[in-house]
């Protein structure tokens, strides 16, 4: 069972002092929230029957949300070296979660795409994450949830993350 961590400081007092231009305090809050989200993600992966690392799962999510792509494009989106992406793809090909195929437009390039097994894994892990996040959000006071959607949407748009299409959940 996942519960919200107990804070050791008065978070209401900290929030009331934060102005919209206080980048350091906002950055600290996002870093703290990201630790929680990474922990939720790690637990969701650990609970799944597949053995995946967070970076491998991130690759699956990128392929799921953006479709087939060249290794160089995938490396750029993941902000890693092309050799790292090649090794990750090699491992995921052996698990049947991704496949390589010639690019139909050029036939000289190779594209990587998610397989049905990869989609099954993304959906299963995402369902587990959703349940865990729902519990955390549900434990928040209602009046504190109001601005969360707008703030998180603005944050993900600023970071270039496409909206999640979770209609399949």
UniProtKB/TrEMBL annotation:
**GO MF terms held by the record:** DNA binding; DNA-binding transcription factor activity
Q: Gene3D superfamilies in the record, alphabetically?
A: Winged helix-like DNA-binding domain superfamily/Winged helix DNA-binding domain (1.10.10.10)
| Region forming the signal peptide | none
- Which UniProt keyword terms apply here? DNA-binding
Alphabetical list of SUPFAM superfamilies matching this protein: Winged helix' DNA-binding domain
Q: Which InterPro entries match?
A: HTH_MarR-typ, MarR/SlyA-like, WH-like_DNA-bd_sf, WH_DNA-bd_sf
Q: Which GO terms describe its biological process?
A: response to stress
Q: Where is the HTH marR-type domain?
A: 23-157
Q: Which domain of life is it from?
A: Bacteria
Name of the protein:
DNA-binding transcriptional regulator, MarR family
Task: Please give the organism.
Answer: Lentzea albidocapillata
């Amino acid at each position: 069972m996942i519960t919200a961590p107990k804070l050791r400081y008065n978070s209401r007092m900290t929030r009331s002092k934060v102005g919209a231009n206080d980048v350091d305090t906002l950055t600290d809050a996002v870093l703290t929230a990201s630790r929680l989200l990474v922990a939720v993600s790690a637990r969701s992966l650990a609970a799944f029957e597949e053995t995946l690392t967070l970076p491998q799962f991130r690759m699956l999510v990128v392929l799921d949300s953006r479709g087939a792509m060249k290794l160089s494009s995938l490396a750029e989106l993941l902000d890693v070296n092309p050799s790292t992406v090649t090794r990750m793809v090699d491992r995921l090909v052996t698990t049947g979660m991704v496949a390589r195929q010639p690019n139909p437009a050029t036939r000289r390039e190779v594209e990587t795409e998610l397989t049905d097994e990869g989609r099954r894994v993304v959906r299963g892990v995402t369902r587990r994450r959703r349940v865990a996040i729902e519990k955390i959000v549900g434990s928040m006071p209602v009046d504190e949830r109001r601005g969360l959607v707008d703030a998180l949407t603005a944050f993900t748009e600023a970071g270039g993350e496409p909206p999640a299409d979770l209609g399949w959940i």
